[in-house]
């Protein structure tokens, strides 16, 4: 993979080209006498000297399929992000000791120097409500909240001791998806489509599907392209109605007319490119062309109602409704067609216990119902199609929940709920070169801190990149004079979960 | 005092050479005016030379160097110090011999150059100036389980990364790693580290210290050992560092052994055939395939094996097999899902010697076609949505490397699978058709 540094001069040129208005101004100035002397300088800067541009980015074919550093096991990723953070202590991290401590005051030693989002004063410990059993050959712990997923526990690789350093949703989601708690970095899906392109020229390489009624707290930046060319940002498809707005031809416009108008727009864009040399203009042209091809391909792929009844039965889908299950089925269809990265966000997992919907007893049960069967179906469906070997499924969230019951404002809550917890939570992966039926990492008796196999958000990202064939340390993009990576200066591949 | 040697020596080198230069320059009319400064420069350079010789003497006695190899440098250095002192005297009391200062400076410069070069050889290695240095290829550890660990694996690692400082010419910390006996002797702190119960080789301890630790070896800034090298050396030391140990005695995990595969850009496990001698195909040979609409990519950058995806080509048919002429050896994976190929295509497909993954899902192939695959090295075979029956499956039993076969929506019946699985116990067959019974969760309504 060619990843030499883009020189500062080249980068400056790219940025400069984006500032078309200033360029125009200078050009007009060059009529003046002073600018006469200046204009050769300007021309020297804008001459077409960027032919040797040495990133992976080819503005005319930004999504051309590319080869990673190593033969990757996974060819595509389906990332299931449960926005809001489900409780690992109810679903996967079984803590019988915690149950015994239920209702007791939390010892001071645990609270010393800790910051919580909502817990104030001394909270009470909250025993797990999940009824846990060891499942399958692997003996992985899965609770009664996920009865279907429990049946395929042998396919999963659990990371039980993931930690992050953010305890609020938006920064934690950004850290998980972009490697930085602050805005401006490209998302995981953007990095992957930048590095691998897409095997299907008629569909976007990075598709985002949301459910649960709201977008994640961090907004669209969690699938943004940051400093990567904008063509690599996630394409957010609507989960109900037209998947992509304005993809259909307007009334009284037929395909030929549409084609003619796109040709005319592209012609104008080509003229603009000749004048200003901004590669983003070329990306724009290719985007128009792809949009035109998507008019034919997208409605077909995006329409899940063509699937046979037993598939709908399996996923628990209801076409036409906005639901996580529909998105999961759509994700399978997209991956089957060669889409590189499908990111699902499901909102509504923030189980604080301040209302029915956020209670561990009712809200969490309902949320689990929405995903449990669908995810199980996704795993089995990919498996029977021979695609699970090369499709990586990641399930996780931005952080976990505390072993203490939340006492917002120091008051007792109407329902059982837990506060945000950054020190230990569970993520699982499946397929795509992970070792099926493994559990890596362990938390202490109450699930507060990792005691073994502690992994960071960067480690998870490094592992995902590794499975796709990237060396996360050399997979970089030049920006502001230095190469940037997703994992910044951190991250170790979690080898125990690799097959 | 000894540590100052590498610093101090630069003064005599620069100053004495400058004095010689000024002496020559002084022969011309324009250079005359600098002549007055030459005695001072020579004086300063001379002091530098004396200090260099002194500090060098201390450094030598610290014992990091073999006396025999330093001797020559030492003698020249002493000569230089004495020579410069003499020259200072000659400036003080100039004798009536024409150009005596010029000659003296010339002789001294020769001394400076020779001494400097010999010193350089000591620090940077004998060959540091030779231009046609053989370029060091990164050493690959041969994964032969019967290899002698020390002679074939560890000695080359030491040679490459350690002996420059711990070898014949230089023995930092009195440690020599050029021969196994010397390795076992250890340095000035001995071979072992730590108390009796936590005893381990000092070397293992040093290698594992964080890079920022001063005692970490190799030192920061020098070529570091790879994780795998550390693991092998550690294991070998812990087993007594005997010369007769074989690689298999170390009982390394597969992970460590396969790490070298990763370095070679080869797949970790046997997903793909090993093709060390196969050359990559030129891009121009792939153009016709790409023009046809196929996605053609090497497995990894620089890898000779190719994966080819024809999935999106609904008009791809048997006659397109022509396009792959000349690429036979390089094709490792081919995806023909949903194309219009029939059994005829399996003729050219079965002639691909390195084919490991084959997707024939939703095509018109039959049992007859599948039978042609019997001499291939397939690992993955996708037959989803085809009219394959158990008859076709039986013909696959001769495939030595087959790992998984996908048969969802094919004509294979579940009742035949027991027997087929028995014939091919190592192969994973997936008939699909999973059903998920809707289970319920009890919603607890008890409230506080």
CATH domain fold name of the largest domain in chain A:
Alkaline Phosphatase, subunit A
What is the N-to-C order of secondary-structure elements of chain B (H for helix, E for strand)? Answer: HHHHHHHEEHHHHEEEHEHEHEHE
The oligomerization state is heterodimer
Helix content of chain A: 25-40%
Q: Given the helix and strand composition of chain A, which structural class is it?
A: alpha/beta
Terminal Cα span of chain A: 25 Å
Poorly predicted spans of chain B:
260-269, 443-448
- Based on secondary structure, the structural category of chain B is alpha/beta
Instruction: Give the overall shape of chain A.
Output: globular
Indicate the radius of gyration of chain A in whole angstroms. Answer: 25 Å
CATH class of the largest domain in chain A: Alpha Beta
Describe what you observe in this structure.
The complex is a heterodimer of chains A (499) and B (448). Chain A has helices at residues 8-18, 20-29, 33-46, 88-91, 96-100, 108-111, 147-150, 169-178, 188-196, 255-276, 279-302, 309-315, 324-336, 363-384, 457-467; strands spanning 76-83, 132-135, 140-143, 156-163, 206-211, 235-237, 341-347, 391-396, 400-405, 418-421, 425-430, 438-440, 442-443, 450-452, 455-456, 477-479, 482-484. With 499 residues, chain A is an alpha/beta fold. Chain A folds into two domains: 8-52, no CATH class; 76-250 and 276-497, Alkaline Phosphatase, subunit A. In chain A, a hairpin with a 2-residue loop joins strand 16 and strand 17 (482-484). Chain B folds into three domains: 2-124; 149-263, no CATH class; 283-430, Alpha-Beta Horseshoe (Leucine-rich repeat, LRR (right-handed beta-alpha superhelix)), CATH 3.80.10.10. In chain B, strands 3-4-5-6-7-8-9 form a seven-stranded mixed β-sheet, covered by helices on one side. In chain B, strands 1-2 form a two-stranded antiparallel sheet. With 448 residues, chain B is an alpha/beta fold. Classes of the chains: A alpha/beta (499), B alpha/beta (448). At the A-B interface, helix 12 and helix 14 of A face strand 3 of B.
